[in-house]
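Handout, page 2. Input:
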Amino acid sequence: MTDVVDVVSVAPVVELSLAPAAEVVVVSTGPPGPAGGGGAAAYVHTQAVASASWSIPHNLGYYPTVSVFTVGGVEVEAAPIHTSVNVTVVSFAVPMAGTARLL
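Output:
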């Protein structure tokens, strides 16, 4: 007897547990995704003066992932808005200084 397990995910599958006797057969694969941003491009923005809105001209040519850190290095939640493929604006509820890492 063969068990069939359908895996549907919009995020990468981290772990898939099957019974010891289960056999995994890949029936089909989807089309390849688009080329990535190269992985090497990154930009670090330093906001020395506290502000509730940071305008970040990164010139990466794509919409990057944004991580924001306080001056002390603590990661904080932010609301990045990509105004173009080369500029990102990050807004906060209160003015703050720190850094933003764009990948």
